[in-house]
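tool_log.txt
---
The assistant was asked to compare two proteins side by side. It first ran the structure predictor on the initial sequence, then on the second. Raw inputs and outputs are pasted verbatim so the downstream comparison step can read them without reformatting.
(1)
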Amino acid sequence: MDGAEHARLRRMLTAEFMIRNVRRIEPLIRQTVDRALDELHAAGPPADLVTHVALPVPSMVICHLLGVPYADHGFFQERSRTLIDRDAPPERVQRHVRELRDYLHRLVEAKVATGERADDLLSRLARDRVDTGELAVDELVGMAVLLLIAGHETTANMIGLSTLLLLRHPARYAALRDDPGHADGLVDELLRYLSIVRTGLPRLATEDVEVGGRLIRAGEGAIAVLSLANRDQAAFDRPNEFDPYRAAQQHVAFGFGVHQCIGQPLARAELRIALVELARRFPRLRPASTAGRLPTRDSSVVYGLDALPVTW
């Protein structure tokens, strides 16, 4: 969406993801991370960090915020994976979109019908926006689909890839444990360097514009590739190097402008807390095997690891 319709719906969500609200739920994120690390410890060594930490942490948090039963996480994880898989057959994509929307439609309808006072995002929007006619049920379902998918797939992949990168730089991993106050800057550099959204953002020029010495005429299409922008030597010194002490705040891993990711304060908090607690609890963490290539999801819109066996 663009223009007034986009602004109307985005305004309804902006307050939910403001930094002060995310700080309010940081104890919940920390508790979720602690439980996941307990499970990692109980499962190994060795144990799969993706299975026990990277996937469940953001899934649990977004389910709690939205008011979606975590017991159903297997259902929506499978369908969200299909939706961002570029190689998935179209008929499967259509079926999984329909199944996910039907699931969330039933959930939203139940919240509207009961008028429950639950303190979750979908209940609040159902109570405060749908009941007043400001928001249609189908619009709320669309919001729920977007937030549920974006709220766990991206952060899960960032946790796994960031851990692997830090384990390949043991001094950086140790510094994270010894100097957790530096974690915010480190998170920005990880977001810049890894740039897990691997597909370009298609855009249509509404007027003639020059970009990098190239004229794009009104009506022509262009694709903005975030990962290339985050390696732009005009914006970053030595852009192909991982430098945890770099001032990387101007990266575009979350996009830019009116469409940039609304959930970025939440994603930053989850990544920071997960990495700091992992370094604190598992100071001797290392990959369980250096042989062979780790399984990755190369066909996905969001790049990530399918597994990361670790030991300690």
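(2)
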Amino acid sequence: MKFVKMVAASCLVLAWGVGSASAFELGVIGFQFTSETHARVANAAAAAAKAKGWNVTLLNSEGALPKHAEQFEALIAKKVDAIIVAMGKPVEADAQFKAAKDKGIPVITVQSGAGPYSLFDIQTNEYKVGADAALYLLGQMGYTGNLMSVRFDGNIASRIRGKVLDVVLSENTAVKEVGKHGMARTQSWRDDVRSGVQALLLRNQGKINGIWASFDGQAYIIDDLLKAQGVKKGEIPLVSVDGGAETYRRIADPDSTFLATVTVPFEEMGVKAVEAVEAIAVKKQPASTITTGPYLFMDAVVVDKNNVKDFLK
């Protein structure tokens, strides 16, 4: 009996050793880590995968489509077992997504939009997110006055938010959009937003009653510009979308003009992507057991002075 136990223990050690030698290989690509949200998703996914004992290749495309494509191709050549893409480009990188599918490598995206060659996209319902942000801002404005918007059509999530804002404005004609800056897709996007907003503030000095930003990174720049001009909290309500430690700090700060955000659970999305990969690529469950259709939706909530303390914790 003792001999049988020893043999069993030896087999267990051997099995563990074989498993370690052929650990699951996961590739994680974040499109642009200078955008905090991209990094939050990618880093959370990488951490969750490493906690499972997987090998992780974590890549940053630095906002460049050619590099994005090259990194995709490198992961395919490496023969990774699965790929997670944060804020990727299923349309622009169509060939790379197809190549991964042809090689039998499952790809799950986060906040990237659906594509024919990925399993599904994990995101919040951006139509609801956009409505929550727009209606919160209009509520602060009393559904009247002049609004300024800072947009980014290069990302599907922020583009949808902008389109929903347009629908809300079309039904609330007492609110006028007097200024709009469309952020360019560039590695120096912060400079782009700063110069664009400065121009709009100068052109509409004393006429702006509220500002809408498509994501919090833009709102930080706007907040700093407004504070430099002596604007106090609530004088020009500033509302955005994304959430995060810096956002919550500003919302709670009486010297900041940042009033509210619709917080998107980026870290949870990264973890959910890893869980989905494990179910599909490791446990061989069909993708339909995770979600039906091209999207897996997660909840987003409005964070303002009334509940920001809960998020600061």
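---
observation on (2): The CA atoms of residues 242 and 264 lie 5 Å apart. The chain has eleven helices and twelve strands.
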